[in-house]
């Protein structure tokens, strides 16, 4: 049965059609917000997938180019693989929803969001986020919802709920918050050094809006929601846990996981697992789930040690950061490099500078962002965790980590006018044991400064973890979590920023939300850690950006010319500008407003190219001294080329002070001579003279 539901959200009408389309999906919501239209569907397999020990959830965000009246680029004119923006949006939907599915659910679930129309006033990301939640809530798929998501912007210190694309372009804050009825379950933010207190206010402004949306979702579920289907539980039998504890007592498991070395812990667990496999050799049912059982035994052990005994696996205090190290210039000949090490997490970052023409072009649904000049990319090879597998390019995790570091650093980058370069930083993970994304931010900051990029302030990042008990008050926040504490804990709360404020947040949790007290404590704890990393580690490795770019980095000269002269500089079919490039070896970019960038590695050649462009783009003036090359000789005089495509005539009478019978008596083809502009003759032609060049002319 087709039913339509509506609510007012941030001054616009949100409409949800149920039973109108995609009726064979477990749940489908045809979403309208202004003229933005997204079809969100939730489907699940009938049976659990065999041989897995995780919940197989897939979230897709499909950007259809017809939604903004475009035909896709490329040869086949069809949407291809998901863009980075689509992948990041999928991750933002996945992260808050995944913990709300049953932990022992093994049926495949796909949440698909197809963007069919985009209204610049109504961001399709918000619509897809809400659509996924509604489609899942009204379906028969087990789900402990509802949840809701809201975006917050900030202009002139005022919060804006679900800002338009135009407002986002000038906003000091880009915040997305997901909530359940009681708690915040996901935070993602990019900000221009927002103070901690202001950020907390923004988070809970979104949380308030989410409560109104949840009431709306509840009303939809009450009317059209399906009963949740029963499923085959994949929970570990309690008898198996009891048998394991008989063979491996809790004290032995504590000893196995209590080490500051990841390899040692893994070897200890391998020995324990082999002992259990031998003990249960005759029980195929238990052997099939033994790996998951050992994992859960480790998890319970670590959580008990932390929460009850205040003991961390590597022996650190609750607020203690692992050993830190920072250095720059570790890679020769690149434009900038740095390495940041935190315990067994190590990132090497390399900066490359290039002309603005090499900025990344974006082909997506956002009409306000068609390119970006700063690109941060993150790589995570298998050797960084002591494993072996073939490299298949960046996955969603790598793209997400790169985007987080990029978002953290964008607010401190110089403007294009201040620093006319495209900038690429690449974080190579040498070793990983927790929070490589935050180590990437630290390494990138130092790498940029080493490359001579005049960033406004250094940025550092750190992550906090969480272990919770039975009640909201029974919890412990951990500073600088390592991999084990991330795997077995309840939260990964990443915050990056300067001394003065936050530039990025990404919060993932595995439980059904955080209280405000936990959020405030985590943000305060990350600020303390960030200040320490900046002051005691990073700023001692490199205190400020270098005054100039490195020896091997390209140099750039910027100049402005009259836009009416662009055609003369470029020449017919690019003949003039290509001649300058061929002679000087530089790269030249010209924008429609007359901004010219000359990029090269040899200053003399760059100066020569600039001189040529100045000559071509300017009108000759009386008294101007020029140097030209004789390119043609006629009976009446010699033609000189002052720059590619820019010539002038020296009449035979102006070649020398004495009478000249033949032009060749004074100059030959290829001669380079100095002339002075004599202004225009009676015919309006500009003339030049060699004989009238002042003796002191330079």
From TrEMBL:
Protein name: Polyribonucleotide nucleotidyltransferase
EC number: 2.7.7.8
Database matches in Pfam families: KH_1, PNPase, RNase_PH, RNase_PH_C, S1
Family of the protein in this entry: Belongs to the polyribonucleotide nucleotidyltransferase family.
Keyword Secreted: no
Keywords from the named record: Cytoplasm, Magnesium, Metal-binding, Nucleotidyltransferase, RNA-binding, Transferase
Locations listed in the record: Cytoplasm
């Amino acid at each position: 049965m087709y039913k339509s539901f509506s609510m007012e959200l941030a001054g616009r009408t949100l409409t949800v059609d149920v039973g109108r389309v995609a009726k064979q999906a477990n749940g489908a919501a045809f979403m309208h917000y202004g003229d933005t239209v997204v079809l969100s569907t939730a489907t699940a397999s009938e049976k659990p997938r065999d041989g897995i020990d995780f919940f197989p959830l897939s979230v897709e965000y499909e950007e259809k180019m017809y939604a903004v009246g475009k035909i896709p680029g490329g040869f086949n004119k069809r949407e291809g693989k998901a863009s980075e923006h689509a992948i990041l949006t999928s991750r933002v939907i996945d992260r808050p929803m995944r913990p709300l599915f049953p932990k022992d659910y093994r049926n495949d679930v796909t949440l698909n969001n197809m963007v069919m129309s985009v209204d610049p006033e109504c961001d399709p990301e918000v619509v897809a986020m809400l659509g996924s939640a509604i489609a899942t809530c009204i379906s028969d798929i087990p789900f402990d919802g509802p949840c809701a998501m809201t975006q917050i912007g900030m202009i002139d210190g005022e919060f804006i709920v679900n800002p338009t694309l135009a407002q986002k372009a000038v906003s000091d804050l880009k915040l997305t918050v997901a909530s359940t009825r009681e708690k915040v379950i996901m935070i993602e933010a990019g900000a221009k050094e927002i103070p901690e207190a202001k950020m907390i206010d923004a988070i809970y402004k979104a949380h308030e809006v989410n409560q109104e949306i949840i009431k709306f979702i509840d009303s939809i579920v009450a009317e059209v929601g399906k009963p949740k289907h029963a499923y085959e539980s994949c929970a570990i039998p309690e008898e198996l846990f009891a048998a394991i504890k008989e063979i491996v007592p809790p004290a032995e498991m504590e000893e196995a996981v209590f080490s500051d070395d990841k390899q040692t812990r893994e070897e200890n667990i391998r020995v324990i697992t082999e002992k259990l496999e031998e003990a249960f050799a005759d029980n195929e049912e238990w052997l099939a789930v033994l790996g998951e059982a050992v994992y859960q035994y480790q998890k319970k052990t670590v959580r008990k040690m932390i929460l009850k005994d205040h003991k961390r696996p590597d022996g650190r205090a609750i607020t203690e950061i692992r050993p830190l190290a920072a250095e720059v210039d570790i890679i020769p000949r690149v434009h900038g490099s740095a390495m940041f090490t935190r315990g067994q997490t190590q990132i090497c970052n390399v900066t490359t500078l290039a002309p603005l023409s090499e900025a990344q072009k974006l082909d997506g649904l956002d009409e306000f962002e068609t390119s970006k000049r700063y690109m941060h990319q993150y790589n995570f090879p298998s050797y960084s965790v002591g494993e072996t597998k073939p490299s298949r390019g960046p996955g969603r995790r790598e793209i997400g980590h790169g985007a987080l570091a990029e978002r953290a650093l964008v607010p401190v980058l110089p403007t294009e006018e201040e620093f006319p370069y495209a900038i690429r930083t690449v974080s190579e993970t040498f070793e990983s044991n927790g929070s490589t994304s935050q180590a990437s931010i630290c390494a990138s900051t130092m790498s940029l400064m080493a490359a001579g990029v005049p960033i406004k302030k250094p940025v550092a990042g750190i992550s906090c973890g969480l272990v919770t008990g039975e009640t909201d008050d029974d919890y412990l926040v951990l500073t600088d979590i390592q991999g084990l504490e991330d795997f077995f804990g309840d939260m990964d709360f990443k915050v990056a920023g300067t001394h003065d404020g936050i530039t990025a947040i990404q919060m993932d949790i595995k439980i059904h939300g955080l209280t405000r007290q936990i959020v405030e404590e985590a943000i305060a704890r990350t600020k303390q850690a960030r200040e320490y990393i900046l002051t005691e580690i990073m700023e001692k490795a490199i205190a400020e950006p270098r005054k100039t770019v490195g020896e091997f980095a390209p140099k750039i000269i910027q100049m402005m010319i009259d836009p009416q002269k662009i055609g003369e500089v470029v020449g017919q079919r690019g003949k003039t500008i290509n001649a300058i490039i061929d002679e000087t070896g530089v790269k030249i970019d010209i924008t429609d407003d007359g901004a010219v960038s000359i990029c090269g590695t040899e200053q003399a050649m760059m100066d020569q190219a600039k001189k040529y462009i100045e000559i071509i783009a300017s009108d000759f003036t009386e008294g101007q001294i020029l140097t030209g090359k004789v390119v043609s000789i006629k009976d009446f005089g010699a033609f000189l080329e002052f720059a590619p495509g820019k010539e002038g005539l020296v009449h035979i009478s102006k070649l020398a002070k004495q009478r000249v019978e033949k032009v060749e008596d004074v100059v030959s083809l290829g001669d380079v001579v100095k002339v002075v502009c004599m202004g225009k003759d009676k015919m309006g032609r500009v003339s030049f003279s060699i004989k009238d060049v002042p003796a002191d002319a330079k």
